[in-house]
Give the backbone structure.
Amino acid sequence: MGIIYPYSFYLYFEDIMFDKLIKRILSLFPEKLSNLYYKYEPALLYIFFGAFTTLVSVTVQYISSLSGANTAAATTVSWVCAVTFAFFTNKLFVFRSKSEGLSDWFRQAGQFYGARLVSYLLELGFMLLTVDILHFNMMFMKIMAQVFILLINYLFSKLVIFRKKNENTLNSGINDEEQ
């Protein structure tokens, strides 16, 4: 039984339009490059959408600081916007994770925001140290922080949050058969 989620339009886009767009773009390239893309598709999509997430984060940080927010407030607002953008793009396009109900959706969202909270605290500490204490350029430090955060968040997402169901049950199925 399917539940209609607020992002049902995105599911339609992900299932049909996004795949068609990728296939159309890849048709312009030699087959070897297309095969290479499909071999590394999740990582390449993560980098692609990670770049846009970074753009969201840096833009919101800049606008927040222009409006008079201090480093901590600007970093917090940019984090909320970037993590929300990242959740939907990672769930729908990168890991193509389907929820098996509302509780599953909330579990993924909770794990995603929880893991991102760890990276937020690392980013906030880095920004306060480098910008407020050491007086380095805020935008340069923000971009530096985003590179490291991108790597940390990819590992959290791939290994914990959006892992496929068969990865969770593979070992238990083998153990059940052996017993």
